[in-house]
Each structure stands twice: as structure tokens, then as C-alpha cells.
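Example (one chain per record):
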Amino acid sequence: MYNLEAALLSQWREKALSEKELLEIGDLRKDVLRTAIGFGAFAVLILCLSWAAEPTTDHPQVVASQRADIVAQMPEN
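Predicted structure:
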């Protein structure tokens, strides 16, 4: 087991890049822009799903609470 762990660590060290190497490889502006676009698309997806969702006024609990409010507001005769 020790030899397997040593081999994996050795291989990981060879393939791992330093922070400086990572920043040199890609264009940081493009990466930040892609990340911002991804978050924006995710936010739009969530908004669209929430707009398309079933309204909560159809649930029995909501209807019962609305009826209770109407009954409470009615003047007594």
C-alpha cells in the first residue's frame, strides 16, 4: 500500500501546476468573464423556473388562510 501511495503522490507532484503557471496558461480576463456569464445564465435559469412554477394560491393551506382573513374582515350582523 505504501508503494501505491508513494507512486500516486509522485505522479500528482509531476502533474500539479503552481499558481504562477496556472495564471500564465490562461487569460485571466477570459476566465473571469466566462465565470460571470455562467453565474448570470444560472440566475436567469432560476428566475425562469420560478416564473414558470405553479402559483402558491392554489394550495389548500393558502386558500384556507385567505378564507379565514375574509371571514375575519366581514362585519357581524
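Caption: The chain has a mean pLDDT of 77.
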